[in-house]
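Handout, section B. The chain below has 334 residues.
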Amino acid sequence: MASFSKFGNDLYTGARSFNIVGRRRIWFSIAAVLVLIAVIVPLVRGFQFGIEFRGGSEFTVSALGNNPDQSKATDAVNAVVPGQGDVARVSVVGGNAVRVQTSQLTTAQTQKISDELASMYNVKPRDITSSFIGPSWGADITTQAIRALVIFVILAGVVMALYFRTWKMSVAAIIALLHDLVITAGVYAVLGFEVTPAAVIGFLTILGYSLYDTVVVFDKIRETTAEDGDSSRRTFADSVNLAVNQTLVRSINTSVVALLPVGSILFIGAVVLGAGTLRDISLALFVGILAGTYSTIFIAAPLYSLLREREPEQLKSTKKKAATTARATTGAVR
């Protein structure tokens, strides 16, 4: 613990430093590759949308033993609607229940499949529940989520621009935020996870965490760069890099503290309880927190530095400080 504290203190004082801003091309390239994969895969494979979005009928057979046979559910659906069982989504829920999702069925077909499932699994009819979800409900949820996302991004961008008194910090933060959302959505497509309303809630929750971490780092950047005067030998990029290093340990600690409970919920929801809602929310949060930590350190701060370095005032200051450093070095050699 003492060595880790010393490590953090060295980063804060500048005794030890990682050249994060200077190597931004590496970080930007990594992010670009990940974003490209996250965009291409959904275009090729598409997302696996939950029944709430595509609509259909759902059956749940409970009170079964451990690891129930899923093929019986497929046979039950095929017995009533030939061919439907082969495309139905069958999964084990909680280790002792089977969930069957099909396309839209009539009332008569729903009843027959319920009876067939009861016969196949040798359970009572009351142990089988059935429901129907129309696709319009999922469409409404999608529309509202997109509207909420757009409004949030616009308001967040305006507030950050006013708070930091520069639109460049706002742009860098929003780009990092979009990076987190695209990466998280891409993970669902790459791994074939089902996108449910709970997952959408998780996506929206990421927004708050990502911006919170970015604002803290940006606040330190503003404080550090404001201290630079004509006598300072640090360039703007050097000051930004110092600020990122000063908040590096804090960012890592915050991420670890956030990931531990989210990871626990993900394990309990997916493995122990088989609770789909817990799994979907925690999975989106887990991936989003990891992506948010990366984007705050390696995208938002270096991108802001890049935007500011090209300003005439900063270019002039950088040249002046480089000349001062060169003269000092020459004098020391003599």
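Note. The beta strands are 48-49, 56-61, 89-93, 97-102, 128-133, 194-195. Compare this with the example in section A.
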